[in-house]
Every structure is written in C-alpha cells, then in structure tokens.
Amino acid sequence: MASTNPKTYEPTSPRKVAFLGLGVMGFPMAGHLALAGHRVTVYNRSAARRQAWTQEFKAAAAATPREAAADCDFVFCCVGNDEDLRSVVLGEQGAFAGMKPGAVFVDHTTASANVARELSAQAAGRGLAFVDAPVSGGQAGAQNGMLTVMCGGEQAAFDAVRPVAMAFSRAFTLLGASGAGQLAKMVNQVAIAGLVQGLSEAIAFGLKAGLDMGQVLEVIGKGAAQSWQMDNRGKTMIADQFDFGFAVDWMRKDLGLVLDEAKRNGARLPVTALVDQFYADIQAQGGQRWDTSSLIRRLR
Known about the structure:
CATH architecture of the largest domain: 3-Layer(aba) Sandwich
Low-confidence stretches: none
Shape: globular
Number of helices: 13
Mean pLDDT: 96
Order of helices and strands: EHEHEHEHHEHEEHEHEHHHHH
CATH class of the largest domain: Alpha Beta
CATH topology of the largest domain: Rossmann fold
Distance between the termini: 37 Å
Number of domains: 2
Largest sheet: 6 strands, parallel
Radius of gyration: 20 Å
Strand content: 5-15%
Strand order of the largest sheet: 3-2-1-4-5-6
C-alpha cells in the first residue's frame, strides 16, 4: 500500500492516535493514518497481524487496547460486532481505561445503535467523547482511503476528529446524536440488499432469455437502472465469480441488526426480511465468504 498509495491527504496537524482492529478494513484505514503523518499505535488480537502492520507502516503496536489508547487524542476502532466492541472498550485492559480526559473514541464497527448509545454514555461519564461512525465503500474504499463515513455524536467531538479521519475518507458526515451513524448504515444496507436482489433477478432473467448480458448491462447502465452494484458487480455476477468483496456472513450480521431495530421502531421491511433469508440459502450452499452479489446463485 505504501508504495502505490494514490491518496492525497488534506493538510492537518499530526496527532497521536490509536487504531484497534486490523481486519480487511482496519488494516488499510490505520495505514492511511500513518501515511498522513499521524503517530499511530495499533492493537489487534492476532499478534501476527499487528506485526505485519508495523512492518509495513513502521509504526508502533501495543499488547492491549488500554496500552494502545494511552495519551492518544483519538482512538479509532473497527472490529466485528457489539461484543467485540465491548471487549476492546470496557474492562481493566479496555481502551476507555487508558484514554486521557477529553480524548475521542471513534467506532467504525457496524454495530447496533443501542451499543453506540451505551458506550457514548459510559464515555461521557469518564470525561471522554464517543462517535459512532460505520463506513461504506468496502475493502477497496478502505485501501484507497475513500470511505463514506456516517457519524453519530456530539458536534464538538465530530469537528475535532474529522480532519484526522479524512485520511481514509472521502466523506465524513455527522447525521445526528449518538446512534445516528449506526442507523444510517442500516439504511445503507437495506438499500443494498434490495438492489442486489433486483440485479440478480435481472441478470438471471436476461441469461434465460438468451441475451448477451454483458452488452445489455453496458446499455442499461447508461440509463435509469444504473447503480454502483451494476457497475462493479454486474460482470462478475454474469461470470459466476464471488471470491471478493463484502462477505455474505457480514451482510447477514448487518441485516440482523436492521431487522432487530425494525422490530423496535415499527418499520416494515418485507423485502429486506426476504433477502436476508435468501442470504441464508447462500450460506447453506457454502457461500459464507462469497461476495454479497452471490444472491444470483439461487436463481441459476
């Protein structure tokens, strides 16, 4: 990444930051912070992953979240789910225990709105700030430093962290109080679920009709049917290729959060509930790690 990095960073004062979680998203996000000139310390449960990151970016690693967060202005995090988040934030070795008063914790995990509100309240009680900030843009967006980030929290904390977070973002937007970022990410996933199912049906229909679907997508992609999914996944769906992108297991986790929230707020999501079950079918076919565009496999 360091040798081919295309990102141009906005000028900002170097800050001392931590990044917790070096998965497919967190590894390059933390890297962009280092390349932008910030003093980065990382933490990851896997020591091998920590070592790989420090070798590539020539920065520091810590053995616990608390050590990573010590004396940092901002602590960024991107882990798997609510419980993973609590495990790196709370407790004697959690990040909150090591953060200095006035520091800001920025959570990029796609998690529940409830855990965002819970941790925001706990942060406030410690003299800290918490911003829930799930991302959209996938692995490619993280690698290119072009993520769209949906934030919930206090204006002052958002304003403080935004110049630093732009190292890996193309848009970093405050959408409301604590939890609003997670709710916005749920809206994003609802929209994607319906789009991918519609595109799957369209391609499967066209193939059954004997059309050259590569050519068809070129044509309709210039009209009202155009979408990111069509532009970036249409050809690979035709080719039956799914070994990349956002995994079905992750999408089912996200849709589970959506459906739980819908039960709470009374929203009606019949298509989302149906597509969630279609993804369960894909999991049963062994496609847990296939890209979400693998919905078309049900129709072939």
